[in-house]
Design brief:
about 210 residues; alpha/beta; 7 strands; Rossmann fold; 7 helices; about 20% strand; seven-stranded mixed sheet
Length: about 210
């Protein structure tokens, strides 16, 4: 294989270059740092990392208190974000990016953990309350709106009522839970494509 053919192959493997106005902001929530990488609270990070792997882009540019990628998904220019603010201040990053690109709440999608569902279960909603989730509280506060789409990824309930919630969401998944979560992460990535492509009802019907 010639050098020209190698370069052409490498170029074909890259994500399409972003074009036009930024239309969507996709935020996967989590905490920065290796110690949190595989924890329940970081399922949002894990999901957008899987999306980046599938779509061949990298979430590595530092901007808006986040690691971001500027990429094309479903024919739309999107910012894919992993806030570096720690979970409870996620709204600082989301709000700053939304204001910079003039992105309305209806064009924002947030992916995050939900202890009300078992691992492997996900729920898609067009809008809603924070549900007691501190990351979502912060985003709603900084956007002054709850009218944004969200994908809630089940991470399992506390093993007993006295178990500290912070300790639970910062714990790692069991091997059995990982097997349940793996296909749900792929489903969530497909749901992102549907939602960005204007088919949120289809995504809800398919995956809820």
């Amino acid at each position: 294989m010639s050098l020209e053919e190698i370069f052409a192959k490498l170029k074909a493997q890259r994500a399409p270059q972003p074009q036009g106005q930024v239309e969507w902001l996709i935020a996967g929530l989590g905490n920065p740092g290796k110690e949190y990488a595989a924890t329940r609270h970081n399922i949002g990070f894990i999901t957008v990392d899987r999306l980046a792997e599938q779509e061949k882009f990298e979430i590595k540019k530092i901007k808006f208190k986040s690691l971001i990628a500027d990429t094309m998904l479903a024919g739309k220019r999107c910012i894919v974000m992993k806030p570096s603010t720690f979970m409870n201040n996620s709204g600082e990053a989301v709000g700053e990016c939304a204001r910079f690109y003039h992105i309305e709440p209806q064009k924002i999608l947030v992916i995050y953990d939900d202890i009300n569902f078992e691992p492997g279960v996900m729920r898609i909603r067009k809008q809603g309350s924070d549900g007691g989730h501190n990351g979502m509280k912060s985003i709603i506060y900084h956007l002054n709106s709850n009218a944004f789409a969200r994908i809630r990824m089940g991470v399992g309930a506390k093993p007993h009522p006295d178990y500290d919630l912070a300790d639970w969401v910062l714990s790692k998944f069991s091997e059995k839970e990982v097997k349940a979560i793996e296909p749900a992460i792929d489903d969530a990535c497909e749901a992102v494509r549907l939602i960005v492509g204007g088919n949120i009802d289809e995504a809800m019907n398919k995956y809820n």
